[in-house]
Write the C-alpha cells for this entry.
Amino acid sequence: MISIKTLEEIEIMAQGGQILAKIMRELKDKVSPGLTTQELDRLASELILNYGAESAFKNYRSFPAALCTSVNEQIVHGVPSDRRLLDGDILSLDLGIVYNGFNSDMAVTVPVGTVDPEIGRLIRVTKKSLKRAIARTKSGKTIGDIGHAIQGYVENQDFHVVRDLCGHGIGKQLHEKPDIPNFGQRHKGELLKLGMVLAIEPMVVIGQPKIKKGPDGFVYQTADGSISAHFEHTVAVTAKGPRVLTE
Ligand code: MG
C-alpha cells in the first residue's frame, strides 16, 4: 500500500523540506579542497539541531552519521571520514531529516574545485534528469513514466543509470512504498495519485552501471571505478502538479 498524505501532512513535509534545503545550501557552500567529509557531517548535525529537526539517517540500519558523503566512484551511502577532499573530486551530499514526525530526503552532487569537463557534464545531466522526472510526477502518470524520463535522457547523453538502487516513497517512514527505479517504460508500473510523496533520486555513471558494496559495508560504488553523480528531491503529487518539497 502506498501511503496518501493529507494536505496538512504535505504542508508539514514542505516545512521540513525547506529546512533541509537550507541546510543543504550551507553544506554545499562549504565544500572546497582540503575539507574532510567528517567536518561536513559535523556541520550537518549542528544545523539539523539548530533548526529543531532530527537526523533521519543516523542509526538508520546502523548508519553512523547524519550525512552521506560519496566521493567520485562512490555512488551513495558513503560514510563521512577524515578523507580530505581534493581539487577535481566530485562529492554527493545526501541528507535526510525528520521534522514534526515526517521525513524529507535530498541529495546534490557538487564539484570540488575544478573538475574534468566530462565530470561537469555528468553532474549537469544527472541534475537535469531529475528535473525531467519531476515534471512527470503528476496524478495519472506512472512510476514507469518517471523511470523512463530519467533513463531516456541519461542514455541519450551517453551515460548510464544505476539499476540496483532506486528512489522511494517517503513520509512517516524514510523508505516507504513504492520503489522508484531510475529506468522504466512509459505507462507501466504503479499509477501516481494525489497525496503521494516520492523521493526521486537518479544515480548516473560514466562507465558501466554495475555496482559493488565497499569494504565498510555501507557505501555503494561502481564496480569499474568510474565516476558517479546523484541528485534527489522529495516531491508531492498535488492537484496543481508536482510540488518539490525540498527547495
Ligand atoms: Mg533517498
About this structure: Residues 129 and 153 are 6 Å apart (CA to CA).
